[in-house]
Amino acid sequence: MTTIREYRPTDLEKTAAVWLTSTVKGQPFLSEEHWLTVYRRLYHTLLPVEWKTLLAEVDGEIEGMLSFSAPGEIAALFVGPSCQHKGHAGALLTAAKELYGRLEVWVYIQNETALHFFSRSGFAPLREKTETETKLKKVLMVWPSCPNTL
Questions:
Q1: What percent of the chain shows pLDDT beyond 90?
Q2: What is the Rg, in whole angstroms, of the alpha carbon atoms belonging to the chain?
Q3: How far apart are the C-alpha atoms of 23 and 113, rounded to whole Å?
Q4: Domains of the chain
Q5: pTM
Q6: Which of 17, 44, 58, 91 has its CA 20 to 30 A from that of 147?
Q7: Running DSSP on this structure, what letter comes out for residue 83?
């Protein structure tokens, strides 16, 4: 059974590992070098200082994570590659919906799996932008869906 709990400083190594392995596998349209650069920031600043993070845990093992960059703004939602399709992402998202009345997340257009997951979870596309650093398009998905969507 999946338990959702808040991140603790002692979770840094395992949470960062879940993020890195999931990110590299789930978003192959960006290089591993790119993700390793982001990983350094994630490890030293984002997880320990800037983000509020929820963890999906099974039998004491961290299998997924959802981080907020601000209230209701999802910065990361990842489940370890060997732990996917077990309901962890859905459980994390349910907990996020209980915390905040509105959620938003930017998703790369190339990440069809994430776009499908968020659509199935009641999110709707609101607007698009091109990311400055990568030059890739992203779409802002919002929950609950609103009438002004794309």
A1: 85
A2: 15
A3: 12
A4: 3-143 (3.40.630.30)
A5: 0.92
A6: 91
A7: G
